[in-house]
Amino acid sequence: MANTKQIKKRYDRIAKYFDSLERPMGTRGFAKWRKELVQQATGKTLEVGVGTGKNIPHYPDNVNLTVIDFSKNMLEKAKLKNTNTSHNITFLEMDVQNMAFEDNTFDTVITSCVFCSVPNPVKGLKEIKRVLKPDGKLIMLEHVRSNGKVLGKLMDWFNFIPLNIMGANINRRTKQNLTKAGFNDVNVTELWKDIVKYFYVKNEKLI
């Protein structure tokens, strides 16, 4: 399994080509799903893995937005693409597995096609739970491993290809990882087959 340093290096390497590499995903509805995703953000919001910043223009104007990415080159590209935005944005180079924010900081956390690349997804989700306020919401657009007997196995067998090229896994079990991280109130909406999904998560915790 690739470690954080290796995956970060891969994303730094492909940052200048990343939008071109992702362009085919737009034809499968990802642009529409991303827009709908971020428009649900309210209050003090954190976007984890902002990448090249393609979600930023779609956030509501009244959101207080902080965006992070562990790839310096991806973050710089996001800044350049959003220099003229009307949004109040804080850009930070930071790893979701080890965030510097205080407990109970954010009302909303957004991820879109991020947890395929986090080396230790449960650790990253535990960090999100920590920085979310009680009853805060985590909203995710993620692709996951199919439950289909044949397709699931194929995704396991061929996972090494995108992992070695981009640092992304195609066989993550995000629902199970959310449970392992301590999230109990998880609702799932399937968007494309049983692979692309919205995860709506309420942060239930004692304070």
UniProtKB/TrEMBL annotation:
SUPFAM superfamilies reported in the protein's UniProt record: S-adenosyl-L-methionine-dependent methyltransferases (SSF53335)
Domain Methyltransferase type: 46-140
Gene3D superfamilies to which the protein is assigned, alphabetical: Vaccinia Virus protein VP39
Single GO biological process annotation from the record: methylation
InterPro entries: Methyltransf_11 (IPR013216), SAM-dependent_MTases_sf (IPR029063), Thiol_S-MT (IPR052356)
Superkingdom assignment: Bacteria
Record's keyword terms, sorted: Methyltransferase, Transferase
Single GO MF annotation: methyltransferase activity
Protein name: Class I SAM-dependent methyltransferase
Gene source species: Psychroserpens ponticola
